[in-house]
Design a protein that fits this description.
Blueprint lengths: L1 H19 L1 E6 L7 E3 L3 E3 L1 H12 L3 E6 L2 H9 L5 E2 L12 E2 L6 E9 L17 E5 L15 E5 L2 H9 L5 E5 H11 L3 E12 L3 E2 L4 H16 L2 H10 L3 H6 L3 H4 L1
């Protein structure tokens, strides 16, 4: 009986320790990096990378897919530990950020297939046009703060894409790879005006007490970069290597 009680106590102790080793991660869906569907669950390049490294460290992740604003609200309420693809200005001031980007927001100007526009030259060419602007997005320069067009605010990127395909807006600024996948899967008649407007490395943000953990995490990320593992993952999903994106060689992605 005493042996059974001792084993039960040991089991309860281990179960409690395992629960303490789980970290809650929130993100706004951004395929192919991190996304959720009922069929596939949580998936993507970033999800697979983080799961693998955290698992190797004996830790686990609780993944939550939500809008940017809900993830930010959860961060301020203390309900999450990590936010992917976050914005420093919106998150708690004491939260820390990763240093090695593993995702890049390749921002292009997207138009309906029938648009007379053929290339992106400057933002002024969109003056007076209806431009879909996603409420939760923090747009990079030079898009952020530009006032020459008529902004049409949309609740999420999918709504903006649909309005663009239906020609209810004239232009939308969004990620090259994600937009291409959406256009293909939904058979939408839209296209990007070359070249890209901006390429913005992304960061993940986390609570300060996780700093030693993320130092180890980034060491593991760097090791996988050196071994070519991220290149292989990127080529499989995107058709272009991680190294090419990091160097700013986007020709393979745009073709």
């Amino acid at each position: 009986m005493r042996r059974l009680a001792a084993l039960l106590l040991l089991w309860l102790t281990l179960a409690s320790a395992q629960a303490r080793e789980q970290f809650t991660v929130c993100f706004d869906d951004w395929a192919p990096y991190a996304a959720y569907t009922p069929e596939r669950g949580h998936y993507g390049i970033t999800v697979a990378l983080m799961r693998e490294i955290f698992n190797d460290m004996g830790l686990s992740l609780k993944l939550q897919s939500a809008t940017q604003s809900r993830c930010v609200a959860a961060a301020h309420a203390g309900r999450i530990d990590i936010m992917l693809f976050g914005d420093k200005e919106a998150l708690p001031a004491h939260w820390l950020a990763t240093n090695i980007p593993t995702e890049f927001w390749l921002v292009g100007a997207w138009v309906p297939q029938q648009s007379p526009l053929q290339r992106y030259e400057q933002l002024a060419q969109f003056n007076g046009l209806r431009v879909a602007m996603v409420t939760d997005y923090i747009y990079p320069a030079p898009i952020h703060g530009y006032l020459g067009w008529h902004s049409v605010m949309v609740g999420d990127a999918i709504d903006g894409v649909r309005q663009l395909a239906a020609r209810r807006v004239d232009v939308m600024f969004d990620d090259l790879i994600w937009m291409r996948q959406v256009a293909k899967s939904k058979k939408l008649k839209i296209r990007m005006l070359p070249p890209l407007i901006a390429a913005q490395p992304q960061q993940h943000f986390y609570k300060p007490h996780l700093a030693p953990l993320f130092e180890r995490y980034e060491q593991e990320v760097q090791a996988r970069i050196k071994r070519g593992e991220l290149d292989a993952s990127y080529r499989a999903e995107l058709g272009i290597s991680y190294d090419a994106l990091r160097r700013g060689d986007y020709a393979g992605a745009i073709q």
